[in-house]
Specification:
With 459 residues, the chain is α/β, with parallel strands linked by helices. The chain has four domains: 23-121, Tumour Suppressor Smad4, CATH 2.60.200.20; 125-303, P-loop containing nucleotide triphosphate hydrolases (Rossmann fold); 308-383, Helicase, Ruva Protein, domain 3, CATH 1.10.8; 399-447, Arc Repressor Mutant, subunit A. Helices cover 32% and strands 20% of the residues. The chain has helices spanning 141-153, 170-179, 201-206, 223-226, 245-254, 280-286, 291-297, 314-328, 339-347, 353-367, 380-383, 388-391, 399-421, 426-433, 437-446, and strands spanning 20-23, 26-30, 39-42, 46-50, 57-58, 69-73, 78-82, 89-91, 94-96, 98-100, 106-109, 112-118, 121-124, 132-133, 136-137, 160-163, 188-192, 231-235, 256-257, 266-267, 271-276, 300-303, 336-337, 372-373. The strands form seven sheets. The protein has a six-stranded antiparallel sheet, with no helix packed on it. A five-stranded mixed sheet has the order 5-4-6-7-10, with no helix packed on it. A hairpin with an 8-residue loop joins strand 2 and strand 3 (39-42).
C-alpha cells in the first residue's frame, strides 16, 4: 500500500465536535478518448465508471463495459475495483483487480485513460453568526458550529451521521441538511430503526413483492424507493439488527436495492443521513455494529450536545414554544414567562433534553390561569430536583456510569409520571412524551413497570 494515500474520513471521539472537517473529494481527468480534457470532481463515497447511463461518470467508449470499475472511499483511502469488465483495468500500466489509488495515478479502461487526483477540502468549523437555522434554534457556540457544518455539507451528497442523546433534535438537523441541499424539492423520508419489528424491518426498508411472505397481499415500496432522488434519514441506526447491516451496507455502496421476494435489482439515488444516541465506535468494538458500515456512515459526524450543555439556549427555545402556542391558539395567547419560572428552567438538568423542555412548556400552557407562566405552572419533577440520596450515586463511579445512573433515575420518574397522567394508556403516554409506543413499552420493561389497567386502544 502506498504511504501517500489520502484518508477518506477521520473518526472523532464521542461527545466531541471537530474543530476542522475534511470533505473527501477527488477529480478524474480524461486524458484520452472522445471525452479528452473533461474533468469530473465528485464527493460521493462510491464513484462508478462505465458506459451505462446510471454511472456517476459515463464514458463513451465501445471498448469499456457498462459498469467497468468503481472507486470507493474507505478509511484507508480511495480503493479502485474492477467490476468484472471485459478488457480489465490498468493503473500506471499494471492490470489490477483491486488496488488503492495514489495521487496522480493513471487509470486505463478500454481506450480511455483518466488521471486520479484527490482534492480533499479541509475547513475550520467557525461558529456561524446566526442564532437559528432552518427549524433549529439556539445561539450557543455549539449550535452555531453545527449551522456552519450544515451550510458547508448540505450542497454535497456526503453521508452524515448525527450523534446525540434522545430528545436533542437530531431529526431537525437531518431535515435542515435536506432543506438546504439540491434535493430539497424531492422526498425526505424518515425511517426509525428502533420502531419497526425485527421481522419487518427489511421489508420496510427495501419493500416487498406480492406473496413474498404471509400477509404480503400486494407490492410495497420500501423507504429507499420512496426516498429516490431525495434524502433518507435513518434514525437510531445503532438499533439496526446485526443480520441486516450487511444488506444496508450493500444498498449504500451499490446504490441499489432488491425487494423482499424479488429478483430485480432497482437503482436508487438517495442522500443518506443517519443518527444515533449510542457511541457507535464502542458498539463496533463490542461486535454489535459492523465496522465497515460504521466507516461508510461516519464520513461527516455531527455531535448534537444535550440541553444541559447549552443552557443559554433555553430562553430562546421557551420563547419559540410560546410563540407557536400563541399563533396556533390566538384566543389563549399569553404574554410570556416570569423570571422566577425561568430560573427554575435554567437550573434543571433536562435529561430528556429539548423534548422534555417542550413538553414541560406545553403542560404549563395547558394548566396555567394567568398570562404569564409562573413557578407553580411548572411540573413538580422540574421544580423539585431529584435528591442525590434518591439517586444513590456512589463516589467511586466514573463520569459515564454516574451520568447513566442520573439519566436512568429521570427516565423512571418521568415514565411513571406520564403513565399516571394518562391512566396507563400507552398510546396517550407516548404522545405526551413525544416518542413511539414501542419506546414506552421498552422503557416500562427496562424499569419493571407493569401496564396497569389502562385502556390502550389506538382510537
Amino acid at each position: 500500500m502506498s504511504k501517500d494515500r489520502t484518508q477518506a474520513t477521520k473518526v472523532i471521539r464521542w461527545e466531541e465536535q471537530p474543530t476542522h472537517l475534511r470533505l473527501a473529494k477527488c477529480k478524474l481527468s480524461v486524458l484520452s478518448g472522445d471525452q479528452k480534457s473533461k474533468d469530473y470532481t465528485l464527493s460521493r463515497p462510491v464513484i462508478r465508471v462505465g458506459t451505462k447511463s446510471d454511472n456517476e461518470i459515463v464514458i463513451k467508449d465501445d471498448t469499456m463495459s457498462r459498469n467497468h470499475f468503481e472507486i470507493k472511499q474507505t478509511k484507508e483511502g480511495y480503493l479502485l475495483s474492477d467490476k468484472d469488465s471485459r478488457n480489465g483495468v490498468f493503473i500506471n500500466g499494471v492490470r489490477i483487480k483491486e488496488a488503492f489509488l495514489s495521487p496522480g495515478a493513471v487509470i486505463r479502461a478500454g481506450k480511455t485513460e483518466l488521471k486520479f487526483s484527490p482534492e480533499d477540502e479541509t475547513f475550520e468549523v467557525v461558529p456561524s453568526n446566526k442564532n437559528r437555522y432552518a427549524q433549529l434554534i439556539g445561539g450557543s457556540t455549539a449550535m452555531r458550529k453545527i449551522y456552519t457544518i450544515i451550510e458547508k455539507i448540505a450542497p454535497t451528497d456526503v453521508t452524515v451521521i448525527i450523534e446525540g442523546e434522545s430528545g436533542t433534535g437530531k431529526e431537525l438537523v437531518a431535515a435542515a441538511i435536506h432543506e438546504k441541499s439540491k434535493r430539497s424539492k424531492r422526498p425526505f423520508v424518515v425511517f426509525d430503526c428502533s420502531s419497526v419489528a425485527e421481522n419487518l424491518i427489511e421489508s420496510e426498508l427495501f419493500g416487498h413483492e406480492k406473496g413474498s411472505f404471509t400477509g404480503a397481499t400486494g407490492l410495497r415500496h420500501g423507504a429507499f424507493e420512496l426516498a429516490d432522488s431525495g434524502s433518507i434519514f435513518l434514525d437510531e441506526i445503532g438499533e439496526l439488527v446485526l443480520d441486516l447491516q450487511p444488506k444496508l451496507l450493500r444498498a449504500l455502496e451499490s446504490r441499489s436495492i432488491r425487494r423482499v421476494g424479488g429478483d430485480r435489482v432497482l437503482p436508487v439515488d438517495v442522500r443518506v443521513v443517519a443518527a444515533t444516541n449510542r457511541n457507535l465506535e464502542s458498539e463496533v468494538k463490542k461486535g454489535s455494529f459492523r465496522e465497515d458500515l460504521f466507516y461508510r456512515l461516519n464520513v461527516v459526524p455531527i455531535y448534537l450536545p444535550p440541553l444541559r450543555k447549552r443552557k443559554e439556549d433555553i430562553p430562546m427555545l421557551v420563547e419559540h414554544f410560546i410563540q407557536i402556542h400563541n399563533e396556533s391558539q390566538p384566543d389563549q395567547a399569553i404574554e410570556g414567562i416570569t423570571s422566577s419560572a425561568m430560573e427554575i428552567l435554567m437550573s434543571h438538568e433536562w435529561p430528556g433534553n429539548v423534548r422534555e423542555l417542550r413538553n414541560t412548556i406545553s403542560r404549563a400552557l395547558s394548566l396555567m390561569d394567568g398570562k404569564l407562566i409562573e413557578p407553580d405552572d411548572i411540573p413538580e419533577r422540574v421544580r423539585v430536583p431529584i435528591a442525590r440520596a434518591e439517586l444513590e450515586i456512589r463516589d467511586d463511579l466514573g463520569f459515564k456510569d454516574a451520568k447513566e445512573q442520573w439519566i436512568g433515575a429521570f427516565e423512571k420518574q418521568y415514565l411513571e409520571d406520564i403513565l399516571k397522567k394518562s391512566k396507563y394508556n400507552i398510546s396517550a403516554a407516548a404522545k405526551e412524551a413525544g416518542i413511539d409506543r414501542k419506546s414506552v413499552q421498552r422503557l416500562m420493561k427496562k424499569y419493571g413497570i407493569s401496564e396497569g389497567n389502562g385502556d390502550d386502544s389506538e382510537d
